[in-house]
Amino acid sequence: MSFYEAIDPQFTRFVMFNAPVKKLATGFDWAEGPVWFGDANCLLFSDIPNNRIMRWRPDGEVSIYREPSNYTNGHTRDHQGRLVSCEHGGRRVSRTEHDGSITVLADAYQGKPLNSPNDVVVKSDGSIWFTDPHYGIMTNYEGYKSEQELPCQVYRLDPETGAIEAVVTDMVCPNGLAFSPDESRLYVADTGAIFDESADRHIRVYEVDGKKVSGGAHFHTIDPGASDGLRIDTDGNIWSSAGDGVHCISPEGKLLGKILVPELVSNVCFGGRNKHQLFITATTSVYSVILNREGMQRP
Ligand code: MG
To answer: Is residue 110 within 8 Å of 132, Cβ to Cβ?
Structure first.
């Protein structure tokens, strides 16, 4: 049985027929938020319910990077290579400085605490864009149960002033997000109310104009499952988590193919020596596969 499924013939050029989907590490409860550190030759990812950030190295070593982690979820790196993290427990977005100290970047909007920042991306101008659904405050499983005081929105943090502004306000539960390679588009997954099976679960696309976005048309509905996290390759294809693995979607919104994964996938990131290794966080384990694609994300 093949590890992939080509829906469109071009997908067979995106994969290498003999590159396996490998299980790199296991024993987690909900692995999420993968981010590659080429300079440190490691992958960091969250194990959210266990309140820790894990580190995997290509030699197979798995260790704890930070515990407790304030129930971090999504991660990325800024242009200085610093780790930027969404914290459910802290209800904030934080940055880990080069000396290891932690700086709070955003924890409130209009005087009210954020819900539970979920995923984050840094634009070329240094602005930090993040989603803030309520999943991390609904129960005590992935954070601390708390009252929701703000709608579930997408925010932009200004690199000059440090202020945040709500840029997407018309979603149920914004989750994973990524810019197109030229940053003219912002893709945002809406995973809706997770306890409501009838809720919309799709990716929407917004046109980006500097600090603002407009549009928000339906782009693609993931089936089965939902798009929790997504990343972009250098040709603008979207690689998204799905119920049966990772789905690859063209910039036109067409499903091109799937990487089949035996556990429910939460998120992905590109990394490795040639930026062509797709790391996949999936429930209790982390997997990876070498693709004939390169990821967009820095560094
Ligand atoms: Mg997410």
So the answer is: no
Element (H, E) at 102: strand 102-106
Residue 233 lies in a domain: yes
Tokens linked to 58 = 């290509």
> Where are the strands (E) in 115-227, listed by range?
120-122, 128-132, 153-157, 164-168, 174-179, 185-190, 202-209, 212-220
**Residue 268 is part of a domain; what is its CATH number?**
2.120.10.30
Query: What's the N-to-C CA distance of the chain in angstroms?
Result: 35
pTM: predicted TM-score of the whole model, two decimal places = 0.96
Q: How many residues does the chain have?
A: 299
Going from the Cα of 18 to the center of ligand 1, the distance in angstroms, rounded, reads 30
**Residue 74 alpha carbon to ligand 1 centre in Å:** 6
Per-residue pLDDT of 92-126, as tens digits, reads 999 999 999 999 999 999 999 999 999 999 999 99
Q: 257, 17 in Cβ contact below 8 A?
A: no
pLDDT on residue 38: 94
Classify residue 297: in a domain, yes or no. Answer: no
Extract the tokens encoding 69. Answer: 């982690």
Q: What is the CA radius of gyration of the chain?
A: 17
Kindly give the distance from the C-alpha atom of residue 13 to the centroid of ligand 1, in angstroms, as a whole number: 28
How many domains does the chain divide into? 1
Domain boundaries, position 202: 4-290
CA of 175 to the centre of ligand 1 (A): 5
Position 298 in a domain: no
